[in-house]
Amino acid sequence: MTAPAAAPPTRRSGWLPVGGGHVLRWWESGAPGGVPLLLLHGGPGGHSTRAHRALADPRRFRVIQVDQRGCGASRPRGELAANTTDHLVDDLERLRAHLGVEGWVVLGPSWGAVLALALAARYPRAVRALVLSGVFLGAREEYRPLLDGRGVDAAVWDRFVAPLDAAERADVPAAYARRIHDPAHPDHMTAVRNWLAFDAAQGGAAFAPSRIRAGPGLVASVAVEAHYARHRFFLPAEGVLGRAGAVAAPVTVVQGTGDTAGAASARRLCAELPHARLRWVEAGHSALEPRLAKRIRASLAGVAAAVTGGAVAR
């Protein structure tokens, strides 16, 4: 078995004020003169990790990571005001200008796929190619389990909605968000643990809120996720798919076959984008799963070779 690639150390980092009281934390690693690569994190509510840097060859890429509004090391942690999908996309364009990047390749896993596609649609000259995995489009059907329990084990759903009254069950994400966003609410921590347990149950784990120990960082992460879910990810019912037609950059989708929801979304995306290339891997959702990581790394290497050769292969 091939040993996993080593994650390169941070070469430089900094802060970027983006308005609304938000200040983003960013990092660079890899080759200063390499192909600029924007490595997005998942979520909403996730954060950048050193482990994800190993997805890109540090000899080929100038790897740029940033924690989105309210996330990770960005300030204020957990802040929800002026925090929408469009804000996040515009922040990425500000970061590109701040770092003097003419155009970059964008790696978007999971929620990062939404932002990558939206960025390429809004700022086409800034995006040279997209590599996506664990595809999420922010479409209503993808988060239907959170709305009405469709596709969820009945016992899990019953336990998840048990704290809510009949009126609140008409909009479960909003009811949970109210509890999660109010530290004084008597059900605040119960809601945080239930939300995390429900997420885990979607991946096949037992619904076990009592086992979850949620510190401030995790609570902030859940708050951001609930904020986006409550507002339907600030996207129409079809999610970012409606913007996909404006994406001219080459697109490679590296998708795990075991990620059922992501696989369906990957097919929908590639049907909308005939120039997209779909690569299947026997893996799940996480870009860090060894087989998926290996294919992502290979796809990025191919993109880098094409970019430095003067044209991006389709």
Q: How is this structure best summarized?
A:
Belongs to the peptidase S33 family. This protein is an alpha/beta fold.
- CATH topology of the largest domain: the name is Rossmann fold
Question: What count of structural domains?
Answer: 2
Helix content: 25-40%
Largest sheet: 8 strands, mixed
Q: What's the total helix number?
A: 10
Please identify which CATH superfamily of the largest domain we are dealing with: Alpha/Beta hydrolase fold, catalytic domain
What would you call the shape?
Answer: globular
How do the helices and strands follow one another from N- to C-terminus? EEEHEHEHEHHHHHEHEH
Task: State the strand order across the main sheet.
Answer: 1-2-4-3-5-6-7-8
CATH C-level label of the largest domain: Alpha Beta
Structural class, by secondary structure, is alpha/beta
Domain AB hydrolase-1: 36-289
EC number: 3.4.11.5
GO molecular function, one term: aminopeptidase activity
Main location: cytoplasm
Q: Could you characterize the architecture of this molecule?
A:
The structure is a single chain. The protein is an alpha/beta fold. The chain has two domains: 10-139 and 235-308, Rossmann fold, CATH 3.40.50.1820; 143-233, no CATH class. It has helices at residues 50-53, 85-99, 111-122, 144-148, 154-161, 172-180, 188-202, 216-230, 260-272, 290-308; strands at 10-19, 22-30, 35-39, 61-66, 104-109, 127-133, 251-256, 277-281. Strands 1-2-4-3-5-6-7-8 form an eight-stranded mixed β-sheet, with helices on both faces. Helix 3 (111-122) links the parallel strand 5 (104-109) and strand 6. Helix 2 (85-99) packs across helix 3, helix 6 crosses helix 7 (188-202) and helix 6 (172-180) packs antiparallel against helix 8 (216-230). The chain is globular and about 60 Å long. The two termini are 30 Å apart.
